[in-house]
Structure formats: structure tokens, C-alpha cells
Specification:
mainly alpha; transmembrane; transport; globular; repeat; MCP_dom_sf
Length: about 220
């Protein structure tokens, strides 16, 4: 909720800000808007991502549960690592979210515009589904390396890696380039289904809200 509300909810508004209200947005303006809202989302919601990753990792850990609840996880991380611990991995996460946001939103925009301009589809459910599925595949290809490094670094022991860059170099040296695409198929299934559900829902809600606003402005 915290990530999507910022990075998706503000995308159109930020895009209009960069294009000064023009209806024809360039690829550069779209990329800039995607990067901006992706970075803002991380600044707001990074602690929720850290807690999520730690919770998922403790299921595989030996020696019992480290955190007893979500609130306990926030308290324990802040007590043991300081408040900076809750923002651990912010830099790679900003890079990851900027890339994911650009890949998801800009690719969806471009695919949808292409389909509509070529008269291959109309602006309805099949078009939204196709555009979202294509955006999900492109996002997985582009974002997988950053996603793998982000997860590995955020879940690392204190002092294991000096930075996200050090983590990426270590992975490359020890495991080779293929390490950056570990879990590609489950990532694609996750991002593909996420994009379809999110964009189709988003388009229908936007249409419903616009129709409601129009009916309120002209009730007779």
C-alpha cells in the first residue's frame, strides 16, 4: 500500500508536471516521472520492505524465530542497529524502484499507446491485459539483477558487505553473471500477474472515478 500509493498513484501527476500539462509526453519525461515516484516511494516506505525481507528470511534461519511480530521486528531492528537499520539498503532499493517503475509504467504506457495508434486494439480490457503482460516481462528482464542484489544485501549479516556495489561484485566473482538472474521464472510469474491485476484494476477504477466526477459535474 505504501509503495504503490506513491510510485503509481503520483505517476500521472508527476508526468504532467514534467511535461507542463502537455498531452504528448516524451519517453524522457515518462522515464523521469517513473524514476521520481519510485525514489519517493522508497524514501517513505523502506522500513516496511526491510521488515518484510527479514521476516521472510527468518523462516529459513536456524535457531528459532528472531522476531515475534511485525511491531517486534521494528523495535528489534531499531534497538540493535539504530534507526538507520530500518533504512538499510535504501540506495539499491532506490535504484531498483526507479528501474522497476520505469520498466513497469513507461513500458505499459508505450505498449498501450502503440496498440492504440496502430488500431490493433481499442482502449478496453484486452488492450490493458496485453500491455500489462508485456510490461511484466520487460520489468523482469531489466530489474532482476538489481532485485537480486537488493535482496541479498538487505538480508546479509552485519558487516558481510560494505555496500550494495561490493555485494554485486562479490556475487559476480563467486557465482558468475547468471547469479543475477536467479529465480527469473518465479519473478516473471510474480511481476507478470502483479502487472495484469494492478493495471487492469487501475484502468477500471480510473474510468469509474472519472465517470463519477463527470456525473457530479453535470447531474442533469
Amino acid at each position: 500500500m505504501s509503495f504503490a500509493s506513491v510510485r503509481i498513484g503520483l505517476y500521472d501527476s508527476v508526468k504532467q508536471f514534467y511535461t507542463k500539462g502537455s498531452e504528448h509526453a516524451s519517453i524522457g519525461s515518462r522515464l523521469l516521472a517513473g524514476s521520481t515516484t519510485g525514489a519517493l516511494a522508497v524514501a517513505v516506505a523502506q522500513p516496511t520492505d526491510v521488515v518484510k525481507v527479514r521476516f521472510q528470511a527468518q523462516a529459513r534461519a536456524v535457531g528459532g524465530r528472531r522476531y515475534q511480530s511485525t511491531v517486534d521486528a521494528y523495535k528489534t531492528i531499531a534497538r540493535e542497529e539504530g534507526f538507520r537499520g530500518l533504512w538499510k539498503g535504501t540506495s539499491p532499493n532506490i535504484a531498483r524502484n526507479a528501474i522497476v517503475n520505469c520498466a513497469e509504467l513507461v513500458t505499459y504506457d508505450l505498449i498501450k499507446d502503440t496498440l492504440l495508434k496502430a488500431n490493433l486494439m481499442t482502449d478496453d480490457l484486452p488492450c490493458h491485459f496485453t500491455s500489462a503482460f508485456g510490461a511484466g516481462f520487460c520489468t523482469t528482464v531489466i530489474a532482476s539483477p538489481v532485485d537480486v542484489v537488493k535482496t541479498r544485501y538487505m538480508n546479509s549479516a552485519l558487516g558481510q558487505y560494505s555496500s550494495a556495489g561490493h555485494c554485486a561484485i562479490t556475487m559476480l566473482q563467486k557465482e558468475g553473471p547468471q547469479a543475477f538472474y536467479k529465480g527469473f521464472m518465479p519473478s516473471f510469474l510474480r511481476l507478470g500477474s502483479w502487472n495484469v491485476v494492478m493495471f487492469v484494476t487501475y484502468e477500471q477504477l480510473k474510468r469509474a472515478l472519472m465517470a463519477a466526477c463527470t456525473s457530479q459535474e453535470a447531474p442533469f
